[in-house]
Amino acid sequence: MSVEAPAATGNMGEPHPRFDARLKVTGGARYASDMPVDNPAYAYLVTSAIARGRIVSINLGEAQNVPGVLHIMTHENTSKDVKDSKLFSDGGFSGTSIIPLQSDKVWHDGQIVAVVVAETYEAAREAGYRVKIEYEAEQPSATFESNGVQVQAAADVKKTHEDPKVGDFDGAFASAEVKVDATYFTPTQHHNPIELFTTTCAWAGDKLTVYEPSQTMYGMKNGIASQLGIEPEQVRVVSNFVGGAFGSKGSLTPRTALTAIAARRVGRPVKLVATRQQGFTIATYRAETKQRVRLGASRDGKLTALSHEGWEVTSRPDNYMVAGTDATTRMYDVANVQSKVSIVHADRNTPGFMRSPPELPYMFGLESAIDELAYALDIDPIELRRKNDTMKEPIKGLPYTSRSVMQCFDEGAKSFGWSKREPKPGSMRDGDWLVGLGCAMSCYPTQMAPSSARVRLSQNGELRVETASHEIGNGAYTVIGQIAAERLGVPYEKVSVVLGDSDYPAAPVSGGSITTASVCNCVAEACDAIRAELGINDPKGDVLAALKSRGRGAIERYAEWTPKGVPDGALAKLYSGQAMPTGGTKDKERIMFAFGAEFIEVRVHQRTREIRVPRIVGAFAAGRIVNPRTARSQLMGGLIWGVSSALHEATEIDKRAARYVNKDLAEYLVPVNADIDQLEVFMIPEEDHEVNPLGIKGIGELGNVGTNAAVANAVYHATGKRIRDLPIRLETLLA
Ligand code: MOS
């Protein structure tokens, strides 16, 4: 694995170093909880010890006697202060509709049941442990198959949900020459960003400033205002850097309003840093899924029938779902398709976005089943994909704006040495190690949302870009600056980009890999407006010289950009905190996806069944790559996370108590350096003139889709054992 940045090829931009790299390694980057506030008090959360039931009594006597304690919030003194907040998918802002301290009801284990505010963190924490709560507990339902869960069809709970379907699946499957019918399981997973879930709130009169790591400045600003019953104009949200989010910081959280209320009550700023353990239950997570995939094909490998059914766990009150069949039913040329998604309500916190929320679990099902079909047909898995490749999605017959998936397979296969693979399972060995080679397709919908930005060019040559978008490790500062520099012909070093502050023009939630494609197009538009005003329409013309010759000090333009296909009023919605992404499968005339092909070598020890991954190759095509250095980092991180999803990660649930048990970084397994050996990322130049003016497809989530299937497929090739339940463990292979 080279440490050099990849050179730009084709239509790629320059591999500029990350704008924030030095700030981050020198400690210069200030995260939300680093922001200095005057004379802060510290909050500590008390969380429920049961998963279902109610609070009978709370005794605060001992806690209040801890020196330094200023105030303790419980439902008994707070229930009227926090207003309801709807789930974002129901038109609200929240990642959960479970609002703590509203009543005595307990919806899930680890729910916030009290907040202690004290002079020091230590005092707040000690008092937190001295809050005595008596519960009336009921038997909770933990997950699939638990007594008391409630199963609902997605189509019955969500008006806009569609289960993609075309042709006659039952007939085609019944008469298929070769069939696969298999059920797959993916586990509960928690994001665990290294930056913990923190909130700092400071009031100045009736104006509130919230410092909270977030992927949604305007969602937070509007959401917190509605929960506190104040005007959005009274709220400023600041989050200049985010130390990992992956979806977990993409919506209004239950802790924010509580921290704001605490700060108002004690009359000084309040800082809250939740513990790692609390992060498992006060934030969101990836819910476990169960999926049944059926494939029918002709003897020569043409797919004739595809059925994908999924079940996903959610909380009791919320209808959160990821519904990955939206993508999996559209990846291959197949005439008869059916699908169905169901949600399973259990006594759990509400799940939420986690990097590639729909595709990571659902492409595991599809791409495992495709591999199973390849073996059943005795056809090379890449050739099977080639035979069923398509430039039109099968459900509505819409054309792909571009789709370079087979180029990815071919380039990746060449570098990986796929041609040296002996097809028969268990046929490749190296001493005591069984060698397995596997591959899978990766995909991610290309989505965009309305954005706004302000660009200012000054006569000293400095270029400033302002937008309330987010640096979540995605390289947003860097790529936004690059586009502005390029568009106005200004050196990149002269550009400053400011993000993560709701005082700047509104940008959409940094989720769904939409940031680069949305914000960069908007910034380009603002730059073009500056050019136009200066009358320099030739892209090589000297904009700065024109500014000076007009005797002007600076020129500033504000732009609003909307992608094709968003409804009217989308920009007003953006400012009121609701991003309305379009693209992917939502466009009426075309379908937009980025693609990739991923190759994994595993070695499985023939006696112990220890699994190693010596080689990973990923080849990706995602339209215009703005910065091949930051893009490669994203894709590399995705691939490593994909391996993690296959071999390491699972949140274990005590089914009797509906409680997560491995709630820390020691017991929640993720790969370390020693788990990842050689890793190669290829970016295939791809031009797409339809997705958006700059031809950008988002890549933030592409890299970790399909990797889990590639690993499972490689394990099958090594051992002849098909593992359909993640993560793949020694004991399963030994069984
Ligand atoms: Mo991402 S899981 O869409 O924040």
Explain how this protein is built.
This protein is of the alpha+beta class. Among the domains are: 1-30 and 358-446 and 584-735, Aldehyde Oxidoreductase, domain 4 (2-Layer Sandwich); 448-581, Aldehyde Oxidoreductase, domain 4 (2-Layer Sandwich), CATH 3.30.365. 26% of the residues lie in helices and 24% in strands. It is built from 20 helices and 28 strands. The strands form 7 sheets. A 7-stranded mixed beta sheet has the order 3-5-1-12-9-10-11, sandwiched between helices. Strands 7-15-14-13-8 form a 5-stranded mixed beta sheet. It has a 5-stranded mixed beta sheet with strand order 16-17-24-25-28, sandwiched between helices. Strand 9 and strand 10 (207-211) form a beta hairpin. 57% of the residues are buried. Dioxothiomolybdenum(VI) ion (MOS) binds at residues 215, 246-247, 250, 353-355, 357, 511-512.
